[in-house]
């Protein structure tokens, strides 16, 4: 289960990161194009943003996928 949670967090973070990069890169606004350059996978800042997204997604996935239903807790004796 730990692999599934970790893989899900990394996949969601990568989807958000590259989705924002692609959307901002295609925009007509110079401001959004500048933001796309920050999000670029070719820059150190882009990878740092990805790592921050990974940590956020990792915390959220572990928090919400780790919850068990009241019925499961009852069956486990908790």
Q: Overall 3D geometry? A: elongated
Structural class: mainly alpha
Secondary-structure element string: HHHH
Task: Specify the number of helices.
Answer: 4
Oligomer type: single chain
What is the number of beta strands? 0
Q: Compute the number of structural domains.
A: 1
Helicity range: over 70%
Largest sheet: none
The low-confidence runs, each spanning 5 or more residues with pLDDT under 50, are none
Mean pLDDT: 86
Quick summary of this structure?
By secondary structure, the protein is mainly α. Helix content is 81%, strand content 0%.
Describe this structure in words.
By secondary structure, this protein is an all-alpha fold. The protein has one domain (2-76). Helices cover 81% and strands 0% of the residues. Helix 1 (2-25) packs antiparallel against helix 2 (30-39). It is elongated. The mean pLDDT is 86.
Spell out the key features of this protein.
elongated, mainly alpha, 78 residues, 4 helices, single chain
List the SSEs and their pairings.
Blueprint: H1 2-25, H2 30-39, H3 44-65, H4 70-76
Helix pairs in contact: 1-2, 1-3
